[in-house]
Amino acid sequence: MVTMGRTLTSLLFLFSSIVSLAYAKTHYHDFVVQETKVTRLCKTQTVMTVNGQLPGPTLEVNNGDSLVINVVNRAKDNVTIHWHGVRQITTAWADGPEFITQCPIRPGGSYTYRFTISGQEGTLWWHAHSSWVRATVYGALVIRPKQGDSYPFQKPKRESVVVLGEWWNANPLNVIREAMRTGGGPNISDAFTINGQPGDLYNCSSKDTVIVPVDSGETNLMRVINAGLNQQLFFTIANHKFTVVGADASYVKPFTTSVLMLGPGQTTDVLIKADQPPARYYIAGRAYASAQGVPFDNTTTTAILEYKTAPCPAKGVSSKPVMPSLPAYNDTATATVFSTSFRSPKKVEVPTDIDVNMFITAGLGILQCPPTAPASTCQAPNRTRFTASMNNVSFVLPSNFTILQAHHLGVPGVFTTDFPANPPVTFDYTGNVPQSLWQPIRGTKVYKLKYGATVQIVLQGTNISTAENHPIHLHGYDFYIIAEGFGNFNPATDTSKFNLVDPPLRNTASLPVSGWAVIRFVADNPGSWIMHCHLDVHIGWGLATVLLVEDGLEVSQKLQKPPADLPVC
């Protein structure tokens, strides 16, 4: 009888799998990366876009679907596309980071990305992963449940995508090139944007302000993405509350809040009930700036939540939308309340028998300039150059071979496997750090993991140069954030804070300013996976490392062969 029951269960599982496969689709897209004239803030800039759009196309799929996206580079600079948060199980060749998994797509070249969405539902996004090209080359990736499945909440009346971005009154590539030349910090952005538009509070912008329509009484799903380059953002809507239901394409235990905080790379799915008097309400975003004394863009981007039955203003009279109050720029308390509210919807299988324990410091630093270096190239304080590191290693990208190719083909000399699992020197990470510890070493150092290893990483922020919140993103994986806190992580006392029952599953963690976060995952995806700060100025300075996960024994656990059209360096 037991055997019969098991057989029936197996048959039902097999039938449901076949049905799911029958519904799965393959979506084909063409992305043409091109130079486009874009006018914002009264000025016209020539920037890189996909298909002439800013933001680029929104991709809409169901869980289980596959994507085939042919990217053609008709611009003057190199480009790659990263599918942020997509697991890329055995398809690391399609992940996209320049010189990690592929060589750049040179001007005139092309590459077809092929991958499947597996076990993920919610909101992800895509963006360039080459220099600062992602300032204008980005878009949303909407993943709905499998055909026949439903959301784990009431079906919304309508959905909207809100992509937060940053805008410079300059070509972003020139901004970062100048900063790399001088060694100082790059110029801050001139505006934040919602779906590519700055909004009413900026010059020459109000006629293009984004409108999000609603009907009284309906509940809508809003997918919010921080595609900004270098800034965490607070986000709110006047007089409305959010019910958070998802983040980084994983569902969460619903909770209510009036403000979101997203680091670059993070997504948050929220339900909004149109329960206010019919009118027009500002949707607003502005900086959460945690680094003391560091310049930041203090402007506010807006869109408008507009009730369809909102009374029309009298002729010649302008009706200003209701403006929300936003947290103070340095309101770490509000950011912390938000980031610590996330839970998985039910009990989850958190790895408990840990094979690999890592403790990784993440922070800024300085490089001493040689006495003969011109002052114009040493514009950081005290005639230095800014840098950044993990465990005192400032990551250097290869330039003539990718890490994944070198690993796959056994090519020596491209990287070394001696990234330290712990800081080489133990110090008071969030205290007054001696300046002798401010200068890291430079190198292309990776850390090897065996397939199937259970991994715990303590991420520890430092006060070197200045402390700030770092959005740490790991490619190819989701991970459980089991705890976070301020100060130095203390295993004797802080392990008692670990949530091993229902921690949230994320792909980008907000490492608190002068604090720590602990993540866990199983190394079940072979390939070379970069882990980096998603503030692009920091990744350029070297705040990154690579986890190199070896093949497993089964065919399904091995990296697929490289595609024939993989770009060459």
Automatic annotation (TrEMBL):
Annotated SUPFAM superfamilies: Cupredoxins
Listed GO biological process terms: lignin catabolic process
Catalytic activity: 4 hydroquinone + O2 = 4 benzosemiquinone + 2 H2O
EC identifiers of the protein: 1.10.3.2
GO cellular component: apoplast
Superkingdom in the source lineage: Eukaryota
PROSITE patterns, A to Z: MULTICOPPER_OXIDASE1, MULTICOPPER_OXIDASE2
Plastocyanin-like domain span: 33-147, 160-309, 418-551
Role summary: Lignin degradation and detoxification of lignin-derived products.
Family: Belongs to the multicopper oxidase family.
Protein's recorded name: Laccase
